[in-house]
Amino acid sequence: MLCGTPLPFVYDSEKVNVNEWQERAACRGLPPNLFFVDPHDSIAVEIAKDICRHCPVILSCLTYACDTDQQEGIWGGQTELERSCADLEPIPPLCIACGGDLIPVGSNKMQCIDCGTRWPML
Question: For the stretch 31-50, what's the b/e string if a residue is b when 16 or more beta carbons lie within 10 angstroms of its beta carbon?
Answer without folding.
Answer: eeeebebebeeeebbeebbe
